[in-house]
TrEMBL record:
InterPro entries: Plasmid_inh_PsiB (IPR009385), PsiB-like_sf (IPR038131). NCBIfam families: PRK13701.1. Transmembrane segments: none annotated. Pfam families: PsiB (PF06290). This is Conjugation system SOS inhibitor PsiB.
Length: 68
Protein backbone atom coordinates (compact mmCIF):
# COMPACT_ATOMS: atom_id res chain seq x y z
CA UNK A 1 0.00 0.00 0.00
CA UNK A 2 1.55 3.28 -1.13
CA UNK A 3 0.36 6.66 0.10
CA UNK A 4 0.28 9.71 -2.16
CA UNK A 5 3.69 11.23 -2.73
CA UNK A 6 6.46 11.42 -5.31
CA UNK A 7 5.48 8.29 -7.23
CA UNK A 8 1.71 8.73 -7.32
CA UNK A 9 -0.81 11.37 -6.28
CA UNK A 10 -3.30 8.71 -5.15
CA UNK A 11 -3.29 5.69 -2.84
CA UNK A 12 -2.31 2.50 -4.66
CA UNK A 13 -2.38 -1.12 -3.57
CA UNK A 14 0.43 -2.84 -5.45
CA UNK A 15 1.36 -6.51 -5.63
CA UNK A 16 5.09 -7.07 -5.67
CA UNK A 17 7.06 -10.10 -6.82
CA UNK A 18 9.38 -12.17 -4.62
CA UNK A 19 12.22 -9.76 -5.40
CA UNK A 20 10.21 -6.78 -4.17
CA UNK A 21 9.63 -5.32 -7.64
CA UNK A 22 6.23 -3.73 -8.39
CA UNK A 23 4.14 -6.25 -10.26
CA UNK A 24 0.55 -5.05 -10.62
CA UNK A 25 -1.53 -2.17 -9.31
CA UNK A 26 -4.66 -3.86 -7.99
CA UNK A 27 -6.42 -0.88 -6.43
CA UNK A 28 -6.36 2.91 -6.84
CA UNK A 29 -8.00 5.34 -4.39
CA UNK A 30 -8.15 9.13 -4.35
CA UNK A 31 -9.03 9.02 -0.64
CA UNK A 32 -7.83 6.31 1.69
CA UNK A 33 -10.55 3.71 2.27
CA UNK A 34 -9.26 1.13 4.74
CA UNK A 35 -12.32 -1.09 4.30
CA UNK A 36 -11.58 -1.41 0.57
CA UNK A 37 -7.94 -2.31 1.24
CA UNK A 38 -9.02 -4.83 3.87
CA UNK A 39 -11.51 -6.36 1.44
CA UNK A 40 -8.87 -6.71 -1.29
CA UNK A 41 -6.35 -8.30 1.07
CA UNK A 42 -8.94 -10.71 2.49
CA UNK A 43 -10.10 -11.63 -1.02
CA UNK A 44 -6.53 -12.25 -2.17
CA UNK A 45 -5.86 -14.44 0.88
CA UNK A 46 -9.07 -16.40 0.33
CA UNK A 47 -8.37 -16.95 -3.36
CA UNK A 48 -4.82 -18.05 -2.56
CA UNK A 49 -6.11 -20.51 0.05
CA UNK A 50 -8.50 -21.91 -2.56
CA UNK A 51 -5.60 -22.58 -4.91
CA UNK A 52 -6.07 -19.79 -7.44
CA UNK A 53 -2.96 -18.82 -9.39
CA UNK A 54 -1.27 -15.46 -8.85
CA UNK A 55 -2.37 -14.47 -12.34
CA UNK A 56 -6.01 -15.29 -11.57
CA UNK A 57 -5.86 -13.40 -8.26
CA UNK A 58 -4.44 -10.33 -10.00
CA UNK A 59 -7.15 -10.43 -12.68
CA UNK A 60 -9.91 -10.74 -10.07
CA UNK A 61 -8.51 -7.92 -7.92
CA UNK A 62 -8.01 -5.68 -10.94
CA UNK A 63 -11.59 -6.32 -12.04
CA UNK A 64 -12.63 -4.88 -8.68
CA UNK A 65 -10.84 -1.58 -9.13
CA UNK A 66 -7.26 -1.84 -10.25
CA UNK A 67 -5.34 -0.92 -13.33
CA UNK A 68 -2.46 -2.31 -15.33
Amino acid sequence: LCSPGDVSQVWVLVLVNAGGEPFAVVQVQRRFAPEAVSHSLALAASLDAQGYSVSDIIHILMAEGGQA
